[in-house]
Design goal:
It is built from eight helices and seven strands, in the order E-H-E-E-H-E-H-E-H-H-E-H-H-E-H. The chain is of the alpha/beta class.
């Protein structure tokens, strides 16, 4: 990419959108797309409305697509509108505008059944199991199905239209950026059988620090690949998701949850 490429961030008002704005603004000329007015300049539109979002893509070099419903418990109607129709619209608007690169927010929930079947034993420090990037997709929810769709349509836009697409199966980015903080006990509500200790062990395995999150997105924007799927996770003492795909993008995690 050239100096200060123009990067559109969809969902710029969200947690990860805020991480991108705070940590990558020096490297890129960031533009924002939000679905409601924000306390920073943005193009306001619903990604489910292709006509409404088109103007945001003009003159853009790359897109970081983080918009959509973020909850595992999201209804099918919300997943369909935001994460399926919306993701297709973002890719189509990018294609129409001649955007070369798109970084898509996928999720670990695209393969979440591996974890659900193995939890909580899979969180133990001596458990050897790792879910690779090329493991068959096994979504755990309607939300996970929406993320499988994102990866599939991202692959189609890469293969058919020559776009460079990286799909990030993002782990646990938390607002306080602390893998041992109080937010840990509110995680993994879709597995109600987990104890508080299980939840602490899970976050130790799945935490993605905000610094590593920003660096992984930067690496995805710069990588010389046509299409890739990578997990977003820090170099934690117990990881059950592979880091091989992220390392192939030249990502070197800087943070690590305490054992």
């Amino acid at each position: 990419m050239s100096a200060r490429p123009r990067v559109l961030v969809t969902g710029a008002e969200g947690l990860i959108g805020g991480v991108v704005r705070a940590r990558l603004g020096d490297a890129y000329d960031l533009r924002a797309l939000t679905w409601r007015p924000a306390p920073f300049p943005s193009h306001v539109a619903d990604i489910a409305d292709l006509e409404a979002i088109r103007p945001a893509f003009g003159g853009v070099d790359a897109v970081v697509h983080m918009a959509g419903t973020p909850h595992v418990s999201s209804s099918w109607e919300d997943v369909l509108r935001s994460n399926i129709v919306g993701t297709r619209n973002v890719l189509e608007a990018a294609r129409e505008a001649g955007v070369e690169r798109v970084v898509l927010a996928s999720s670990n929930h695209a393969v979440g059944m591996y974890e659900i079947e193995a939890a909580p034993a899979i969180y133990a420090l001596d458990d050897p199991r790792v879910v690779a990037e090329d493991a068959p997709v096994r979504p755990d929810s309607d939300y996970g199905v929406g993320k499988v769709f994102a990866e599939a349509i991202g692959r189609m836009y890469a293969d058919r239209f020559g776009m460079r697409v990286v799909c990030l199966r993002i782990g646990s980015v938390v607002a306080d950026d602390d893998p041992t903080g109080p937010s840990v006990l509110a995680t993994a509500a879709w597995m109600p059988w987990l104890t508080d200790d299980d939840r602490r062990a899970r976050l130790r395995a799945t935490w993605l620090s905000q610094r590593d999150c920003a660096e992984l997105i930067r690496c995805s924007l710069e990588a010389d690949v046509r299409f890739a799927v990578a997990y977003g996770v820090s170099d934690n003492p117990r990881r059950f998701w592979s880091l091989d795909g992220a390392r192939a993008l030249d990502f070197v995690p800087l943070d690590r949850a305490p054992a």
